[in-house]
Write a structure and sequence with these properties.
This protein has 2 domains: about 220 residues, Rossmann fold, CATH 3.40.50.1100; about 90 residues, 3-Layer(aba) Sandwich (Rossmann fold). Helix content is about 45%, strand content about 15%. It is built from 14 helices and 10 strands. α3 runs parallel beside α5, α5 packs parallel to α6 and α9 packs parallel to α11.
Length: about 325
């Protein structure tokens, strides 16, 4: 199946396929956080998902969509962390091999998790070109099925199930004025757009993107993908280029006029990460905290509204927190 063929029934099928494996994560509320934001905020706690991120949804859907013959050859991907860990765990639920190409400089805590789930690591130079070349080489050597981190239709469908759960927990269709999600490669963003188009078309979709890797904002503004950039952001999970099918889904669906990218500076993301810990006692990674940071940076846009936020991941390297410790 091509990503261009994705529709609401594929999200429902993904939800049914992963139900035996993925957590239905809670929706968290904090009165003190609402007071700071000036809005009613519903936090979809995907950092409490298996493997510590929403990525398990898409990876699990992809793995369990494989025929027995495909599964016997294993799976392969490239990842800076969360998708690799998610695919490794999903592969383990089916008892198949998993190969993950990881770039130099990836977060050590995430690499340790990938290995702990039983994947075989393959190192490569940083940069998307090097990752894709190494991934193609491993695929040719092993015959493994490629499960791309964000352009795979099976992955996109799985990621969209997080928004479906959030909308259900919110009470009924169209009860959210806005939904804010991080955007990197665009798997979560495009899956969420599909979910909203079908279930809650009144809800506006906002994509939170780091200023040091703002290609999605540039691409949607230009009407074509902008890929010539070097990412420079603390949000390691959002350094990837917006995928071609993801761009197409965000641009060509009936929701396109209601999708807006909010660009966020890293300092604001770190502040939001710390605020989440202080007010909700939840530890999330920068690539997740950016969604709250986007709201805080534009409080007037969200004042008085009912706003959903997908907290995308919580795989934080506790030895490298992005603020000074009290003992420092």
């Amino acid at each position: 199946m091509q990503a261009s063929d994705l529709a609401y029934p594929h999200l429902l099928a993904a939800a049914a396929r992963i139900a035996a494996f993925a957590h239905v994560t809670p929706v968290l509320r904090s009165a003190s956080l609402d007071a700071v934001v000036g809005a009613t905020v519903l936090l979809k706690a995907e950092h409490l998902q298996r493997a510590g991120a929403f990525k398990f949804r898409g990876a699990c859907n992809a793995v369990w969509s494989l025929s027995d013959a495909q599964a016997a050859r294993g799976v392969v991907t490239h990842s800076s962390g969360n998708h690799g860990g998610a695919l490794a765990l999903a592969a383990r639920t089916r008892g198949i091999a998993c190969h993950v190409v990881v770039p130099e400089g990836a977060v050590q805590a995430k690499l340790a998790a990938i290995q702990a789930y039983g994947a075989i690591l393959h190192r490569c130079a940083p940069g998307i070109a090097a990752r894709e070349a190494a991934c193609a080489r491993v695929q040719a050597e092993t015959g493994a099925e490629l499960v791309h981190p964000y352009t795979d239709a099976r992955v996109i469908a799985g990621q969209g199930t997080a928004a479906l759960e959030l909308l259900q927990a919110a009470g009924s269709a169209d009860t959210l004025d806005a939904l804010v999600v991080p955007v990197g490669g665009g798997g979560l963003a495009s899956g969420t757009a599909l979910a909203l188009a079908a279930v809650s078309p009144r809800t506006r979709l906002f994509l939170a993107e780091p200023a040091g890797a703002a290609d999605a904002a540039a691409s949607l503004r230009a009407g074509e993908r902008v890929t010539d950039f070097v990412p420079d952001t603390i949000c390691d999970g959002l350094r990837g280029t917006l995928g071609a099918p993801n761009f197409a889904l965000l641009s060509a669906t009936a929701r396109a006029p209601d999708v807006e990218v909010l660009v966020v500076e890293d300092a604001a993301t770190v502040a939001a990460m710390r605020l989440l810990w202080q007010r909700t006692k939840q530890v999330v990674e920068p690539s997740s905290a950016i969604a709250l940071a986007a709201i805080l940076a534009q409080r007037e846009r969200f004042a008085g509204q009912r706003v959903g936020v997908i907290l995308s991941g919580g795989n934080v390297d506790l030895d490298a927190l992005p603020w000074p410790s009290a003992a420092a």
